[in-house]
Amino acid sequence: MTFIKVDDINTYYTQMGNGPDVLCLVGWGQDTRMFEPTQQALSKYFRVTCIDYPGFGQSEPMKSPWSVDDYVSWLQSCLTELNISKPIIIAHSFGARVALKYNLKYPIQKLVFTGAAGIRPKLKLSTKLRIRTYKILKKLVQFPLFKMYEEDLKKAFGSEDYRAISGVLRDSFVRIVNEDLSDTLHKVEVPCLLIWGDKDDATPLWMGQMMEKEMKDAGLVIFENEGHYAYWNQIHRFNKIVDVFLEKDRNHE
Question: pTM of the full predicted structure?
Answer without folding.
Answer: 0.84
